[in-house]
Amino acid sequence: MSCTLSVRWTLTANRFPRPWRTCPRCGTQRAFECSDKFRLNANGRRLDAWLVYKCTTCDDTWNHTLFERRHGRDLDPNLLSALEANDPALVGRFAFDVAALRRAAHRVEEFAGNVAHKEALADRPDAPERLEILIATPVPIAIRLDRLLSSELGLPRARIGAMRDAGHIVTAAALNRPVRDGCRVEFDLAVGEANMILRNACR
Ligand SMILES: [Zn+2]
Predict the structure, then answer these.
(1) Same domain? 87 vs 119
(2) Are 92 and 82 in contact (CB under 8 A)?
(3) CA 70 → CA 41, 46, 52, 73, 145, distances in Å?
(4) Strand ranges of the sheet holding 107-109, from the earlier edge strand across to the other edge
(5) Which residues keep their CB under 5 angstroms from ion ligand 1?
(6) Residue 124's domain spans which residues?
(7) CA end-to-end span of the chain, whole Å?
């Protein structure tokens, strides 16, 4: 019988990333906020689509190009109707595409995520010796792995680094880098904080 308790944490972002661009009206670099709205333009049979952003200081708009001069017949009808309806799931797909935003901005401000859900992946062993945390991030999240573990498990960050150095934490991921989808962290529970770690990992 396995003595490993496996849990999955699913992270969500509370805010869309904000691109910083030179605002023509303000005359300086400003953060732009997603307006949750698309703009479509038909030019004959060709379509352009943008996601509309607003300057956080003066409300001037900036249109983030999603595609240009696309032939109507080449477009998935579901995509077209989702664009016309400002479908929130589609807004999220583009608004979290940090790579595309970076190509159009000086820099992109990302926000830390929250753990929205923790679930055990199997029955809890009577006396678990190891804890495995699998982290799912359906959208990109800017929080560092050690900060996430620290805030969720109630351990100081320095302690997390020390546990890793001592081999009580095993992960292929870098502690000081943003959490990636599918990241896996294993804890050896032969440490003084085992009860607290177990309790906090599951709630
Ligand atoms: Zn402005």
Answers:
(1) no
(2) no
(3) 10, 5, 18, 9, 40
(4) 61-71, 46-55, 28-43, 18-23, 107-109
(5) 23, 25-26, 30, 55, 57-58, 60
(6) 4-14+111-201
(7) 24
For residues 192 and 163, state if they share a domain: yes
Cα(71) to ligand 1 centroid in Å equals 33
Q: What distance in angstroms lies between residue 92's CA and the mean position of ligand 1's atoms?
A: 23
Cα 139 to middle of ligand 1, angstroms: 28
Provide mean pLDDT across the span 92-99: 91
Q: What share of the chain is helix, strand, coil (3-state, %, to 5)?
A: 25, 40, 35
Residues 66 and 119 in one domain: no
- Cα separation, 177 vs 110, in Å, equals 13
Q: How far is the CA of 61 from the centre of ligand 1 (A)?
A: 8
pLDDT above 60: residue 176: yes
Residue 2: pLDDT band (50, 70, 90) is low
17 phi-psi bin (left φ>0, alpha ψ -120 to 50, beta other) = beta
Distance 20 CA to ligand 1 centre (A): 11
CA of 64 to the centre of ligand 1 (A): 16
Last residue of a domain, one of 109, 142, 162: 109
